[in-house]
């Protein structure tokens, strides 16, 4: 195989593979990228057998074929080279030559036939997928991913639940057992479909392909695999096997007390007050009274802090405790100018946070007994 | 009775009256309700029963009934069964060395009858008439014909009514029922083809339908979920054969209670066997953690002496070394072939690519939830051939890092605001982490070596203890309360202590049977799996039993929870994590030992070091 490619195009193709190739792999070829010629250029692919990415790149192919070599080293080489076209060609015994200007590299490769297949369902090409603008999916992921469990042993909580509750709708739900974030948006196409769990690593890779631009993303779920395509990039990942908790049960039907407050003042006050709270549990007490909200924390090792902010509330005074991190997490992904409404029933029932003017986002957080 | 007045001249040594001798002998066999159940259930099994039902009233003091559908007895056999050393199972001394039945001493029924009122109702299959024998305090009171289903039904009432001392030493009803429940469970595991049930009053505690498949029985006992994670294994050597199920390396318990071992079908609790089993896990288990396992060992009857202890849970092997080898090797081989427990979440998953806030968890005192499977030995091509060998010792390096190089995760504390950072530990110059378990530091004129697990455990324990002392541990409520089956032995203990458990940070709600819904867990430990926490709690309460009230046992419960959530040996710590740990160590009143009493750090003065190098 031999082809000429611009440095920029090669870097773009390799960038997406860097998070996927395994750092400490026991299967050497998983640290490699697979480069194959296609009709109008080349494709660059990497997989860890759970998540796989492939990007088509413009290149002038002189001799068709395939090659595979270490993803990180090739990326480093391309990054350090000056801006000029690169010529990459395969030599005997899977060696690869990279040359650009006066620089020449000869690096080891492996037999491309040994390269593992991308995660794939038996037949991906159905019409059941949905199309969604990148910015929208990006926002949805941002508002859900922080609630994914970090406990690696609880597999069913270790990803985002993607569901199509009705035709033309996409819903993302994530929970770690203490709080739950749920966002629903309209999308093009697709009938109602039961949810699947997209693994945390896959979510990270999706976020990566959504970083810039506003092209449409196509999402298809089939046969235990999620398949996303956007422009020249294709991403596929094996779904988490396991049953996602029945999240609808968790959402309180109604809230007897409602507090309305600005994101910015609440977030600032929480950050300040939680400085003295216990480093691990971040317990902060909210004392809610008509027209105001007082946040306080006490830490026997350190001292105490309190802050009062203005809030809309009518009703009897009421106190409840939360892990400040759980509130800071959600407020940080909402626009600072926004106004949120938090609903409560009593000090042991979940609090429900909604954004003013948005009916399709909802955050449920369990209180802490301080 | 032993000190009856006797004339000084005559001999002081007397032959005991038979009723006294019987009671003494009974004491060896019949210690508590579960020993009665054990003897009766074994008799049922030896009689070829396909179904064994155990029913208790008042934790066995009111009534113990064992009902089987075994071969039953003719009238004269039914009477003879109550005589000491009457048995159908052994006829000569020779037979003692070829024992294949469970019971053999021929003293069980006599012993039970000596300390209770016992009714035996039996009918051989095929005979029309049955027999009922009533025995009170060892005396046969009545023998008469009686209609009854084929099989044998034994009812023991007023247990220990005539031995008040024995009755006084019984534990709380919940504990005694727990013992019976454990007994039935361990017996059921080795007889899958027999149906077992256990009722206490109106409550059915256990119900294991008969099955031809022993893995089905394992699933009945452990629950389908847990059983699915257990690895079947098998091994063979000239001394015999071993088979069973092992939990994988990602699962462990704080006590060996869920290890069930059997030799030739007989349940044994033998040091050699359990040592060999744990040795098979080698470094996959932390010190003090145990697997769940069901292990059947089949060896020639001549190779094992079961006639060691009246309770018969110990055995003596003629060639202990060979048995030990067989067990350890088989376990090791199976675990080596074990698939990675969590294949879809590779270690080192870069969380940062997704969301920076997730990584914040690691900034503070880290890794409490780090139940990362400790499986280094699997990746290592040199799996230790001997138990106790350090796997891949040559791969351990003393890793250096620049203490100042911690990326800007934590804002530099202002000295005046952070007295904690001035402490003895945080002032240490960290040289590195050795063997992924010890922090090597230099401070003043000494080297200090800190056991990371012991130190972190101590830190967690102190935090929990302080929170507890300050009026209760903060509780994080759970969105979806998981339902945890803690087992029949622990359930009553948890149920009795629900109110006090809130002070420890747990909110539990009985959920039928031996299950509880977990509404809240200690906030300090909330990163972990709540089910694991509650199981640990249940184990600890069972260990502590009712000998102390929960409020007095709080410390040991907290110690166990702390141990579980602390970083492990084998976990590599980054510079920030080490700093955070040292700082946390300054914040507590450091007595220098982990809650289990092991030292958390040692110091090596420079002068000693120099002496070692013969510089002085």
Describe the protein.
The complex is a heterodimer of chains A (370) and B (616). Chain A has 370 residues and is α+β, with helices and mostly antiparallel strands. Chain A folds into three domains: 2-114, DNA Polymerase III, subunit A, domain 2 (DNA Polymerase III, Chain A, domain 2); 121-248, DNA Polymerase III, subunit A, domain 2 (DNA Polymerase III, Chain A, domain 2), CATH 3.10.150.10; 251-365, DNA Polymerase III, subunit A, domain 2 (DNA Polymerase III, Chain A, domain 2, Roll). Helices cover 18% and strands 42% of the residues of chain A. In chain A, the strands form four sheets. Chain A has a nine-stranded antiparallel sheet with strand order 10-6-2-3-4-18-17-16-11. Chain A has an eight-stranded antiparallel sheet with strand order 15-12-13-14-26-25-24-19. The longest helix of chain A is centred in the middle third of the chain and has 12 residues, at 134-145. Chain B has four domains: 18-208, Histidine kinase-like ATPase, C-terminal domain (Heat Shock Protein 90, 2-Layer Sandwich); 214-336, Ribosomal Protein S5, domain 2 (2-Layer Sandwich); 359-463 and 569-612, 2-Layer Sandwich (formyl-coa transferase, domain 3); 473-565, MutL, C-terminal domain, regulatory subdomain (Ribosomal Protein S8, Chain: A, domain 1, 2-Layer Sandwich), CATH 3.30.1370.100. Chain B has an eight-stranded mixed sheet with strand order 5-4-3-6-2-1-7-8. In chain B, a hairpin with a 2-residue loop joins strand 4 and strand 5. Chain B is elongated.
């Amino acid at each position: 195989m031999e082809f000429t490619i611009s440095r920029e195009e090669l870097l773009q193709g390799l960038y997406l593979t860097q998070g996927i190739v395994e750092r400490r792999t026991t299967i050497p070829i998983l640290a490699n990228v697979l480069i194959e010629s296609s009709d109008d250029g080349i494709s660059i692919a990497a997989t860890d057998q759970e998540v796989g990415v492939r990007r088509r790149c413009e290149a002038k192919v002189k001799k068709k074929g395939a090659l595979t070599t270490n993803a990180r080293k090739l990326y480093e080489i391309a990054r350090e080279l000056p801006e000029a076209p690169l010529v990459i060609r395969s030599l005997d015994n899977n060696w690869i030559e990279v040359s650009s200007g006066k620089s020449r590299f000869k690096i080891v490769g492996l037999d491309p036939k040994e390269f593992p297949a991308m995660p794939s369902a038996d037949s991906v090409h159905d019409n059941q997928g949905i199309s969604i603008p990148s910015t929208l999916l990006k926002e949805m992921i941002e508002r859900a991913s922080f609630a994914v469990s970090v406990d690696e042993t609880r597999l069913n909580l270790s990803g985002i639940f993607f569901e199509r509750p009705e035709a033309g709708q996409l819903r993302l739900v994530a929970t770690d057992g203490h709080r739950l974030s749920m966002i629903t948006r309209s999308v093009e196409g697709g009938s109602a479909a039961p949810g699947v769990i997209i693994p945390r690593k896959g979510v990270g890779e999706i976020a990566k392909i959504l970083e810039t631009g506003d092209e449409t993303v196509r999402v298809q779920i089939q046969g235990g695999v999620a398949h996303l395509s956007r422009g020249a990039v294709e991403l596929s990942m094996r779904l988490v096997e396991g049953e996602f908790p029945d999240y609808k049960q968790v959402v309180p039907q109604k809230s007897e007390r409602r507090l309305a407050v600005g994101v910015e003042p609440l977030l600032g006050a929480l950050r300040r007050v939680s400085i003295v709270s216990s480093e691990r549990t971040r317990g902060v007490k909210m004392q809610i009274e008509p027209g105001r909200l007082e946040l306080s924390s006490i830490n026997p090792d350190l001292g105490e802090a309190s802050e009062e902010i203005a809030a809309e509330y009518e009703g009897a005074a009421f106190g409840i405790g939360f892990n400040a991190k759980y509130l800071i997490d959600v407020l940080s992904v909402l626009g600072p100018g926004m106004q949120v409404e938090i609903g409560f029933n009593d000090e042991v029932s979940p609090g429900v946070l909604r954004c003013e003017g948005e009916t399709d986002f909802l955050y449920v957080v369990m209180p802490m007994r301080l | 009775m032993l000190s009856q007045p006797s004339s000084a001249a005559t001999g002081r040594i007397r032959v005991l009256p038979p009723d006294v001798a019987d009671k003494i002998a009974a004491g060896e066999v019949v210690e508590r309700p579960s020993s009665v159940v054990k003897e009766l259930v074994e008799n049922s099994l030896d009689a070829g029963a396909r179904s064994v039902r155990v029913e208790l009233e008042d934790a066995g003091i009111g009534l113990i009934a064992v009902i089987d559908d075994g071969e039953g007895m003719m009238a004269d056999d039914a009477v003879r069964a109550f005589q000491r050393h009457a048995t159908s199972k052994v006829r000569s001394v020779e037979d003692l060395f070829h024992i294949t039945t469970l019971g053999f001493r021929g003293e069980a029924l006599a012993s039970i009858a000596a300390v209770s009122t016992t009714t035996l109702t039996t009918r051989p299959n095929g005979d029309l008439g049955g027999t009922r024998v009533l025995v009170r305090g060892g005396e046969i009171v009545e023998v008469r014909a009686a209609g009854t289903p084929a099989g044998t039904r034994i009812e023991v009432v007023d247990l220990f009514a005539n031995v008040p001392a024995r009755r006084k030493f019984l534990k709380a009803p919940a504990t005694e029922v727990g013992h019976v429940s454990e007994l039935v469970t361990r017996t059921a595991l080795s007889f899958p083809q027999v149906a077992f049930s256990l009722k206490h009053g109106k409550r059915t505690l256990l119900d294991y339908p008969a099955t031809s498949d022993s893995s089905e029985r394992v699933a009945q006992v452990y629950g389908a979920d847990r059983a699915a994670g257990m690895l079947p294994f098998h091994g063979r050597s000239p001394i015999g054969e071993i088979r069973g199920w092992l939990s994988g390396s990602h699962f462990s318990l704080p006590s060996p209670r869920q290890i069930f071992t059997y030799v030739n079908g007989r349940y044994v609790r033998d040091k050699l066997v359990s040592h060999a089993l744990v040795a098979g896990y080698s470094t996959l288990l932390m010190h003090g953690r145990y697997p769940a396992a069901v292990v059947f060992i089949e060896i020639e009857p001549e190779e094992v002496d079961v006639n060691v202890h009246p309770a018969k849970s110990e055995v003596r092997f003629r060639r202990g070394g060979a048995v030990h080898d067989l067990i350890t090797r088989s376990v090791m081989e199976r675990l080596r072939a074990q698939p990675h427990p969590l294949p879809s979440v590779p270690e080192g998953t870069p969380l940062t690519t997704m969301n920076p806030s997730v990584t914040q968890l690691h900034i503070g005192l880290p890794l409490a939830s780090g139940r990362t499977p400790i499986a280094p030995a699997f990746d290592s091509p040199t799996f230790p051939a001997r138990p106790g060998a350090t796997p891949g010792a040559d791969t351990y390096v003393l890793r250096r890092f620049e203490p100042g190089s911690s990326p800007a995760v934590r804002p530099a504390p202002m000295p005046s605001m952070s007295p904690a950072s001035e402490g003895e530990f945080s002032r240490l110059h960290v040289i590195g982490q050795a063997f992924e378990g010890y922090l090597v530091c230099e401070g003043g004129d000494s080297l200090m070596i800190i056991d990371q697990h012991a130190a972190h455990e101590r830190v967690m324990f102190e935090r929990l203890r302080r929170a507890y002392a300050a009026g209760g541990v903060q509780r994080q409520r759970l969105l979806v309360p998981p339902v945890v089956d803690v087992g029949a032995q622990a359930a009553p203990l948890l149920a009795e202590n629900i109110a006090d458990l809130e002070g420890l940070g747990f909110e539990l709600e009985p959920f039928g049977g031996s299950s509880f819904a977990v509404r809240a867990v200690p906030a300090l430990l909330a990163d972990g799996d709540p089910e694991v926490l509650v199981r640990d709690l249940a184990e600890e309460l069972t260990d502590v039993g009712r000998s102390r009230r929960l409020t007095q046992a709080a410390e040991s419960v907290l110690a166990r929870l702390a141990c579980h959530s602390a970083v492990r040996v084998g976990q590599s710590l980054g510079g920030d994590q080490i700093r955070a740990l040292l700082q946390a160590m300054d914040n507590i009143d450091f007595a220098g030992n982990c809650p289990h009493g092991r030292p958390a750090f040692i110091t090596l003065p420079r002068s000693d070091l120099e002496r070692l190098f013969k510089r002085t």
